[in-house]
Design brief:
The chain is an alpha/beta fold. Helices cover about 40% and strands about 15% of the residues. The chain is built from 18 helices and 13 strands. Helix 8 crosses helix 11.
Length: about 450
């Protein structure tokens, strides 16, 4: 980490957080939701107990730290907070103290300094928005890999090359104006430019309009981190895969980073972006990473990539129907009237939605409602197949077991699309999403 980067975060702890707000809200970064980590990184089989050790590498003012410590507090698991900025650490400590969290170890070092100390290995490492600010990101990733357990996993976020084009062009524009100015002077100049931004400027389009700029002008650390950072790089999808390979790791899954339940993975699926059947078939025949790279360029709106890394190549396993001994469960809970509404609207086109813009359309009926009702986190896939085969589907003089498996797979694909369903052992970690609720609405 360069000296300029160290000084930036001492002067502007990031992100801007007020410990006094901890009593009113709990920020829950989707990438660090352990139900999701368990599903995508550990095949739903991980034990979260007193032996579980998490590392937040470059913890900033504490978003991932607080969320992981909250989740692990009830089972005795621990979190190590690694952050070289003492100013950021003060904010993170105050937030943890406001919540009464005591399962945290604080370390004021860089990634390189910490890994050279040979700490005990970790089950899960969060490193979000950090590696792209290092002089050598690949070395940083290899350092983190050296303290990861053999079966461990990482949650990583780096800047996206294509969706961040507006920032890249802005940095090119102001680069000739930065010489001879200290950070406060650069900030003042940037605020002046943002206050008089032409309506066709790319930053406005990237952020969704004037509200984005207004928010920036109220948040100096955000301006500095977004537009004035002295060291940064960005990756496209192929770059993410190559980055992982540089540390002998594999991309287990792309995931969400911002709020709204963290359904960012849906943006990497071609069938969510392409409707033409012939073109969809052609794209589907390509390797997964080529499909995802197409989605990145076609959408043009991915300013970052959040993803899980594992030592074992899990391929598309997490997207397929889970293993027979695992139990699918509603990660996003159905509303109180969900099943009754499905039955009442039987045979009619309906939308199933989670209130955050994610929706699927289908024509449901009593059989679908009966099947979904037994996705209770206790019935395994094998048991669900038997229930579907013997109790729900009409008996036919054909292989009903195959029909049941295919039907169950189709239902799983539909409800796993936005992480509405995940899978774990029947007695495993099945904490639900506290932000979203599934509802049925007539089209």
């Amino acid at each position: 980490m360069s000296q300029k980067v160290r000084e930036l975060y001492e002067q502007f702890p990031y992100p801007l957080r007020d410990p006094g707000q901890e009593k009113d809200r709990l920020l829950m970064p989707p990438i660090d939701t352990l139900s999701r980590v368990n599903h995508y990184c550990f095949g739903g089989t991980k034990e979260f107990d007193a032996k579980f050790r998490a590392l937040v590498a470059g913890g900033g003012t504490g978003d991932s730290l607080i969320w992981l410590a909250e989740q692990l507090g009830g089972v005795g698991g621990s979190v190590t907070y690694l952050e070289p900025s003492t100013a950021s650490t003060r904010v993170a400590r105050a937030r943890a103290e406001a919540r009464g969290l005591s399962n945290i170890e604080y370390v004021n070092q860089t990634i390189s300094e910490f890994t050279k100390s040979k700490p005990d290995l970790f089950d899960y490492i969060n490193c979000a928005g950090v590696l792209h600010h290092l002089e050598d990101p690949e070395e940083g990733l290899r350092d983190l890999t050296s303290v990861l357990k053999a079966d461990g996993a990482m949650g990583i976020m780096v800047y996206g090359e294509h969706g961040r084009l507006a920032v890249t062009e802005w940095r090119k524009m102001i680069a000739p104006l930065l010489d001879g100015k200290d950070l406060l002077q650069q900030l003042a100049m940037t605020r002046t430019l943002l206050s008089a931004l032409p309506e066709d400027n790319m930053l406005l389009k990237m952020g969704g309009g004037a509200g984005f700029i207004k928010g920036l002008l109220e948040n100096d650390p955000e301006i500095v981190d977004l537009l004035l950072h002295p060291v940064e790089c960005a990756y496209d999808v192929h770059g993410v895969y190559d980055f992982a390979s540089s540390a002998d790791l594999h991309v287990a899954a792309f995931t969400g980073f911002f709020g709204f339940g963290g359904t960012g993975k849906a943006h990497y699926k071609i069938d969510n972006l392409v409707r033409d059947p012939a073109l969809l078939r052609e794209l589907a025949a390509k390797p997964l990473r080529d499909q995802q790279a197409f989605c990145e360029r076609f959408s043009g709106a991915m300013p970052l990539h959040a993803f899980y890394l594992t030592r074992e190549d899990k391929g598309q396993a997490a997207e397929m129907l889970p293993d027979a001994e695992l139990a699918p469960y509603f990660f996003v809970s159905p509303s109180e009237t969900f099943f009754d509404d499905l039955v009442a609207l039987s045979g009619q086109p309906v939308l199933i939605e989670d209130g955050t813009g994610n929706a699927v359309d289908l024509t449901g009926g009593p059989d679908l409602a009966r099947l979904l009702a037994v996705f209770d986190g206790k019935n395994t896939v094998a048991e669900l197949v038997a229930i579907l085969r013997d109790e729900i589907l009409d008996t036919q003089p054909i292989d009903m077991n195959s029909i049941a498996i295919n039907t169950l797979g189709a239902v799983w694909a539909l409800f796993h699309k936005f992480d509405w369903m995940l899978a774990s052992r029947p007695d495993g970690w099945q904490k639900t999403d506290g932000e979203r609720t599934l509802r049925v609405r007539k089209v």
